[in-house]
Design a protein that fits this description.
This protein is of the alpha/beta class and about 240 residues long. The chain has a domain of about 160 residues: Alpha-Beta Barrel (TIM Barrel), CATH 3.20.20. It has a nine-stranded mixed β-sheet.
Length: about 240
Amino acid sequence: MTDLLPTSRSTLRVAELFGPTLQGEGPSAGQRALFVRLSGCNLDCGWCDTPYTWDWDRFNREEQATEMAVAEVASWVVSQGTDLVVITGGEPLVQQQRLGALAAQLAGAGRRVEVETNGTIAPDERLIAAVGTFNVSPKLSGSGVPVHRRLRPKALRAFRDCGKAVFKFVITGPADIQELVELQAELDLGRIWVMPEGTTESAVLTGMRNLAEPALANGWNLSPRLHVLLWGDERGR
């Protein structure tokens, strides 16, 4: 699961840099964006669509994780001339200290920074100051991860209270919907997006149709997986 941290405080372990492309999920879906995908994760979701960021039983870490200077990553982003940059993973906050340095540099260069996170690690003040939006995606029972590992109420409250978080949930079926109803009542998470699990056009469209009525009934927003609808399961899109 979690990759070892970089050997230097000025570097990040990076799985891939790509874009410009279109943000596929959540409130920024459809917006032109760059992606910085970091390596390493503290969870092992059964339906994960980026296992090459953490599953070293199936993937070669030396091939999939590159140690890059924070300044080098920031330079690449700025050179692309795209306003929105999405930092994702894996789980980016595994590398929080180095991530804060990158986010600060990008914000200082006038970029809008979104961080996609599973919500198990609370953000520190430096990261909160630099990030425009945290797309927090806590994992539900359909992930196959034990609840004590995937849901950390203290961390989720820290995201909620920072004023910069939206919450996005992958739904695999009715059990996930019921768990989300209960979690929403317990933690008062505010703005919620739901989206179906799936890496094919047919799975995403069927899932969205199944989620439309529950979303309306519970006051949730419905997110596509736009990148899947456009490009299937193609990596780097």
